[in-house]
């Protein structure tokens, strides 16, 4: 839960500082930060602003205007759908996908991050990295990203 982090302006600023430092050191050229609904919307825009680039929302179905690309995926408790605007990125644009947590212990079909990666691949974006604040390592979620680079600021077993 990142709620305590969000309540503390010094801690939140430090989080964005650390993520900015990581992205700048890792990628000399990046076009967009894509944030996952909903907590990726809290981290992604300030990070994009710091980097001087745009932010692209990846939202739950029915929340975006205009033409969208969508994907349905399974969760432990049912199904979910994510969408991205069809014109959100141009082919070849470089994107880092951001969320608060990677915790899935089930197959890639249940991974919200995996679904977002698939959407961006459909738009022919170049996914530079999946970036999260917290990773629950025992659940091995990063292994389900099919060799897409992955970075977590904090890891817990």
Automatic annotation (TrEMBL):
InterPro entries noted in UniProt: PRTase-like, PRTase_dom, UPRTase/APRTase
Subunit structure: Homodimer.
Class of this enzyme: transferase
Gene3D superfamilies on file: 3.40.50.2020
Protein family per UniProt: Belongs to the purine/pyrimidine phosphoribosyltransferase family.
Domain of life: Eukaryota
Stated role: Catalyzes a salvage reaction resulting in the formation of AMP, that is energically less costly than de novo synthesis.
Organism of this sequence: Hylia prasina (green hylia)
Pathway as given in its UniProt record: Purine metabolism; AMP biosynthesis via salvage pathway; AMP from adenine: step 1/1
MF-aspect GO terms: adenine binding; adenine phosphoribosyltransferase activity; AMP binding
One Pfam family cited in the UniProt record for this chain: Pribosyltran
Protein name, as recorded: Adenine phosphoribosyltransferase
Subcellular location: Cytoplasm
Reactions it catalyzes: AMP + diphosphate = 5-phospho-alpha-D-ribose 1-diphosphate + adenine
Gene Ontology cellular component annotations, sorted alphabetically: cytoplasm
